[in-house]
Amino acid sequence: MIRKISVAMLCILMLSASATLASQVDSRFLGDWYVHTFRIDGSSFNTGGTGMIIKVTVEADGTATWTDPDGSQETGTWTSDGDYMLISWDDGGFIEWVYVDGALISNPQEGNLIIHLEGSLPVQANEGTLDYRTDVQAADFDGSWMSVEITAHGITIPMGELGEPVDPQIKNGKLVALNGIPVDPSVTTDFISSTLFINNPIVDVVSVMNLLTDGSAILMHLHAPEVYFTLIPAP
């Protein structure tokens, strides 16, 4: 009889603990979240345009997972306080999010790169558009690149007809020179999920660079996202 009572009490305690844990979890943050945009200084880059799916999964057991387009993952744990949620990654990094109108907006601790998450998949690019690589590491951008053409509103023009190239040199995943001229130290470069973000505060221009499966790359200035440069490795 004593043993039966002890087992019953143990079950009650376990159920009580589970109920307490559930009550402490803010369900607003749970589920699969998808990166829709990256924003720097008011300029936005839509991930749907590249066809890349970047997912952040938040579980009720306190774990979180970031899944890149190539399937690689980063794991961590999360906690929340009101509208704020903090993910601490297992590698020592962290990111803070703010819940706003059903979306999660990152609250950057360094720099000004803001990530916008929503619970639905971003609208993908139409069939027949650029074939982006999804297995890219920051080092894959390293080297000297030569611009060969510019495309605007579906019309492509050789760079030779414009008179001025846009030839970046990248080292250790950072832009170090443009057209052979070293960039100012205030120019910053971030690499997130197969995309290189370049922020030049001197001319107030934010650019993104992506690699394509044919070995070329594209460079787009976010103030004119309908225009992009096609780059190839310099000989």
Features:
disordered N terminus, 8-stranded antiparallel barrel, 10-stranded antiparallel sheet, 235 residues, 47% strand, mainly beta, 1 helix
Secondary-structure-based class equals mainly beta
Q: How confident overall, as mean pLDDT?
A: 87
Morphology: elongated
Per DSSP E runs of 2 or more residues, the count of β-strands stands at 19
**What is the gyration radius calculated from CA atoms?**
23 Å
Query: How much helix, percentage-wise, in residues?
Result: under 10%
H/E element order? HEEEEEEEEEEEEEEEEEEE
First-to-last CA distance: 85 Å
Structure annotation, total helices: 1
Residue share in β-strands: over 45%
Please mark out the parts with pLDDT under 50 across 5 or more consecutive residues, or reply none: 1-23
Q: Biggest β-sheet: count, sense, barrel?
A: 10 strands, antiparallel
Describe this structure in words.
The protein has 235 residues and is mostly beta strands. Helix content is 10%, strand content 47%. It contains 1 helix and 19 strands. The strands form 2 sheets. Strands 10, 11, 12, 13, 14, 15, 16, 17, 18 and 19 form a 10-stranded antiparallel sheet that branches. β10 (143-152) and β11 (155-158) form a beta hairpin. The chain is elongated. The model is unreliable at 1-23 (pLDDT under 50).
Task: Provide a compact summary of the structure.
The chain is mostly beta strands and 235 residues long. Helices cover 10% and strands 47% of the residues.
Q: What does the secondary structure layout of this molecule look like, with pairings?
A:
Layout: H1 2-24, E1 31-40, E2 43-46, E3 55-58, E4 63-67, E5 73-81, E6 84-89, E7 94-100, E8 103-106, E9 113-118, E10 143-152, E11 155-158, E12 168-171, E13 174-178, E14 181-182, E15 188-192, E16 195-200, E17 205-211, E18 217-221, E19 227-233
Antiparallel strand pairs: 1-2, 1-3, 1-9, 3-4, 4-5, 5-6, 6-7, 7-8, 8-9, 10-11, 10-12, 10-19, 12-13, 13-14, 15-16, 16-17, 17-18, 18-19
